[in-house]
Amino acid sequence: MSKKIHKDLTIETILSMFPHKAQKLSQEITNAGLHCVGCHAATWETLEAGMIGHGMGENEIQRLVDRLNILLEEEQDVSTITITSRAAKKYLEILEQDGKLGWGIRFSEKMAGCNGFEYILDYSEKAQEDDEIFESCGIQIHINSKMKPRLLGSEIDYIDGLQNSGFKITNPNVRSSCGCGTSHGY
Questions:
Q1: Which of 24, 30, 149, 170 sees the fewest Cβ atoms within 10 Å?
Q2: Radius of gyration (Cα) for the chain, nearest Å?
Q3: Which of 1, 131, 8 is nearest to 65 (CA)?
Q4: How many angstroms separate the CA atoms of 100 and 151, rounded?
Q5: What does the H/E/C string look like for the chain?
Q6: Kind of pairing, strands 131-136 and 139-144?
Q7: pLDDT in tens, 38-65
Q8: pLDDT tens for residues 94-151?
Q9: Which segments of the chain belong to CATH 2.60.300.12?
Q10: Taking a C-beta distance cutoff of 8 angstroms, is the pair 154, 13 a contact?
Q11: Phi, psi of 84 (to 5 degrees)
């Protein structure tokens, strides 16, 4: 029987039990109103205690637990790099606005931040000689072949919310991230 998330687990336990899904799980927890996930301030609280402390009731707690367990069941293809349909739509809108229809997206990272690496997304008119090319939702994704082992399995999504909007990367190879969410480590 597979492990499941329940309201009596601490946030720290949830994230450590499922390191390959930790980024998606922490984003879902944050979206539910527990904004202290990344700062390690209250990772020792149970999911239930954290949500009650933020004024949420039993129904909201159960909805979050259900969403987290659905995330655990999502299949993830670690042999490729994908872009969600929502992110592809947004990227195509940006390409059209900037007069770059038909261009791909360059996905890379650089040494930066307090945890080691930061992602970079940029326009890519054509693949470089040392690039690997992935295609998802009709968009070519270009990455330098040296980065492939760290970036395989990544998903590029687009989040549009009141607090922040932008492209969001989920990478099953990441083992740590900074509290502000801008850098990560392997």
A1: 149
A2: 18
A3: 8
A4: 25
A5: CCCCCCCCCEHHHHHHHCHHHHHHHHHHHHHCCCCCCCCCCCCCCEHHHHHHHCCCCHHHHHHHHHHHHHHHHCCCCCCCCEECHHHHHHHHHHHHHCCCCCCEEEEEEEEECCCEEEEEEEEECCCCCCEEEEEECCEEEEEEHHHHHHHCCCEEEEEECCCCEEEEEECCCCCEECCCCCCEEC
A6: antiparallel
A7: 555 566 788 898 889 888 999 999 999 9
A8: 999 999 999 999 999 988 766 678 899 999 999 999 999 999 999 999 999 999 999 9
A9: 82-185
A10: no
A11: -70, 160
Nearest to 78 by CA among 135, 22, 20, 26: 20
The reported pLDDT for the residue numbered 110 is 87
Phi, psi for residue 29 in degrees, rounded to 5: -65, -45
Q: Which two tokens stand for residue 145?
A: 């072949």
- Write down the pTM of the prediction: 0.69
The pair of structure tokens assigned to 38 is 């990344």
